[in-house]
Amino acid sequence: MAGKKTKAALAQLDRSKEYELKEAVEVLKKITTTNFDATVDVAMRLGVDPRHADQIVRGTVMLPHGLGKTLRVLVMCKENKVDEAKEAGADYVGLAEYVEKIQNGWTDVDVVIATPDVMGEVGKLGKILGPRGLMPNPKSGTVTMDVAKAVNEAKAGRIEFRVDKAGNMHAPVGKISFDDQKLSENIKAFIDEVVKAKPSAAKGQYVRTIHLSSTMSPSLKISRDVATI
């Protein structure tokens, strides 16, 4: 049985309608009833078959207004990069101790950055970091010698995205407390990057559906027109 708040939220939502982005943001704020600053998420269904390597969609995007939270960043590097990482604001810096901690189950971070010269060690953690979306990767800018830049970008609101096995893509794009324009601009920035990342091997309709939701809220469907750059 749905609670009173859920029923009230659903009453304000037309589940058969495709909302324009501006209206979708306005409605989402009305139907979000949490007593905390809920995270806003975008979910996209893509016309790709990720079983084929040439149809995997992945990339990064710098959200113009950040995520509304401070990300915890781990930099795995040798001694010559430790000071640079710390000065850039990394929350954790090191190598051997963090390899051991992660092997023992510690993954209390949001972003892991590694320098190329330690990937032999970091690679051993793939089965732990990979499923959590934490494995450093050169394509996402998290395997780099420029650790200061990578840390600054992560702290400023750079997010990684990758299509799942079912062809779905989802990502956080801010907080419900953001003003309408900032939230809309973050959403559009994410969708635009997913569109730009369309694989050449993808055939037919690329963006099938787009849904917007916040923590514990119903989702609403957004018009696919927003996916045109």
Biggest sheet record:
5 strands, mixed
In sequence order, what are the helices and strands, one letter per element? HEHEEEHEHEHHHEEHEE
> Remind me, CATH topology of the largest domain?
Ribulose 1,5 Bisphosphate Carboxylase/Oxygenase
Q: What is the CATH first-level class name of the largest domain?
A: Alpha Beta
Fraction in helix: 25-40%
Instruction: Return the structural class.
Output: alpha/beta
The counted number of beta strands is 10
Which band does the percent of strand residues land in? Answer: 15-25%
Strand order of the largest sheet: 1-10-9-2-8
Q: Give start-end ranges of low-pLDDT stretches.
A: none
> How many individual helices?
8
Structural domain count: 2
**CATH homologous superfamily placement of the largest domain:** Ribosomal protein L1/L10, rRNA-binding domain
- Cα end-to-end separation: 41 Å
Question: What's the average pLDDT?
Answer: 90
Radius of gyration: 19 Å
Task: Identify the overall geometry.
Answer: globular
CATH architecture of the largest domain: 2-Layer Sandwich
Describe the structure.
The chain is an alpha/beta fold and 229 residues long. It has two domains: 17-66 and 159-227, Ribulose 1,5 Bisphosphate Carboxylase/Oxygenase (2-Layer Sandwich); 73-156, Ribosomal protein L1/L10, domain II (Rossmann fold), CATH 3.40.50.790. Helix content is 30%, strand content 22%. The chain is built from eight helices and ten strands. The termini are far apart.
